[in-house]
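Write out this protein's structure.
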Amino acid sequence: MKKLTLSFIVALVGSVSLFAQDAAGDIDYEKARQLFERQKSGQTLTADERAYVARAMASKGGLNPEPYAYESAFAARWLIQRQVKGDGELAEAKSPLLLWGPYLWADGTKGRKLDSLVWERSDFGSDGVHPGESGREKVSKLLLNFLTNDPLAKSWFAK
């Protein structure tokens, strides 16, 4: 039986205006390489953004409200693009294959047109950032849907 390892990387650095650029640099090859070295079986890494966090409580330890979660999708995109363009630090021998995972962000209760995903206040814990029980259930369903329907992911996940 093959061991399935899914890894997610999230970073928070810099100011809002530079967040995506800084995060792309912060989460890039070094952390991917560390994961790759630690778990040779985990040769695919999904880069994902965070769920909507407009209700983040900045007073509780400096947690990051929007637009950090929204901007994190750009960091993931740029990181994947670097590998596609042949960045030596993200080469196959040094780093896992970087793929886009399920898209978790939606504009709160306004939702999104693609699939009507909405994030209610009750989907988050007391800090307004980390998913509560219903939020974890939503993320789990999005992840399972991605793994069973994405052409590349289902080729190894659904075996």
